[in-house]
Write the structure tokens for this entry.
Amino acid sequence: MAVEHLSPDAGADEAAEILARDGCVVIDGLASGDVLERFRSEMKPYFDATTHGADEFVGKHTQRVGGLVTRSAAARELVMDPLVLGTAKSLLTGAAAFHLHLTQVISIGPGETPQPIHRDQWAFDFFPFPKGYEVQCNTLWALTDFTVENGATRVIRGSNLFDDKLEFKIEDTEPAEMPAGSVLLYTGALYHGGGPNRSDAVRRGINITYARSWLRQEENQYLSVPQDLARELPDDLLKVLGYARGAYALGYVDDLRDPLAALRGDTASGDAFGVPEQIPDGIRRHADG
């Protein structure tokens, strides 16, 4: 069966339910043409200046451009898409918060070979997370059409529930085809890889991923986004970037200051998507004492 597709008016819980079952789902037409065009214009200087990768995994005919929050205002809109954030929150249930893990444009050029099939959560030092426990919610926004010919991402539906460290070939996968403006959501446990590009055009996708806030970010957002710019960004975006406590006792500054308040130089509250209200009494007494 092909990857399931949803319309933009789908609910976050429905998308998260499919992700938990299949490891992937496509939402058609979620990004407007205006957002995509502004993104292309803002990112063109970086596309023009970036070289291709050095090995088969990153792609010798593939270009990877990061730092999207700093470089593109349109990218910030994609990062904060309500349906995506709602889906991530529903999928990553049980965590006090989640944060932005990575922003990157992946441009697969003509002649590229299949990327080795992998799990994105292997970035966490290949730690064997329990089967069915998702730690990432990833998105790949189609900046161009994704087709079999131009290197559409290859996925193995349901493989988020497979054992870890398995090896697969491209013949074990299926393409996640979708038109520009659509977005592929997939979990960190899904076995997948970039497809071979047998066309004469570049396939571009905007990879924006989120992870539980007690895990280190793949892309260091505190250095990728200069503080002068960060201070101009809205609080909700800053919380997603990581300027919020990741749990009751994670991520504070010096004398238990909130990171958002420290950035602003004031005492404003900066809780993330909800630090748990129900703190165990023993921990509360320890903190109070």
Observations:
- The domain at 5-212 is CATH 2.60.120.620 (Jelly Rolls).
- The CA atoms of residues 102 and 219 lie 5 Å apart.
- The chain has one domain: 5-212.
- The two ends are 57 Å apart (CA to CA).
